[in-house]
Design goal:
Blueprint: E1 5-8, H1 11-22, E2 42-48, E3 51-60, E4 74-82, H2 91-105, E5 110-116, H3 120-124, E6 129-137, E7 141-149
Parallel strand pairs: 4-5
Antiparallel strand pairs: 1-2, 2-3, 3-4, 5-7, 6-7
């Protein structure tokens, strides 16, 4: 088995994978996020055997629920997903760490996300704390707001 490598990529490389893994039941436009083309955003791909098997994007974005720091120092993880065949092989962890490093380099003091319910434990292993109730995002499912200090 070939090792998984994480590289920074463009939104054009992330979008089809984000759509396939997270929003295949919706139009491609639903997989696009405001700010995707902001040059500060970090889009990362997990690569194996020349193909993309996972993606994550991290944005400078504030949220009033974030208790860690000034809004100008908050970053948000969005569109994190790995292909089923690489889950448990470290692709998600490597993607998340690349995103965190990118945000810290960009001045982040806190990172937050709306984690899908099955991913809550994954984020918790990296220091994210859930706050507030589980909530539904229409057509996507149950989520938990999570944050961590950098």
């Amino acid at each position: 088995m070939t090792a998984i490598a994480v590289v920074r990529v463009s939104i054009d490389q992330v979008l089809p994978v984000r759509h396939r893994l997270l929003r295949s039941h919706q139009p491609v436009a639903k997989a696009q996020f405001p700010g995707d083309h902001d040059p500060r955003v970090g889009h990362f791909a997990a690569m194996r055997d020349g193909g993309i098997v996972g993606v994550v994007s991290i944005f400078p974005e504030a949220d009033t629920r974030c208790s860690q720091c000034d809004p100008a120092q908050q970053w948000r993880i969005r569109g994190m997903a790995t292909a089923p065949e690489v889950r448990g092989l470290g692709a998600g962890a490597t993607l998340l760490l690349a995103a965190i490093d990118h945000a810290v380099d960009g001045g982040a003091r806190a990172i937050w996300c709306n984690a899908q319910q099955p991913a809550i434990g994954f984020y918790a292993r990296f220091g994210f704390m859930g706050t507030g109730p589980i909530f539904e995002i229409s057509e996507i499912g149950a989520h938990q707001y999570m944050e961590r200090a950098c």
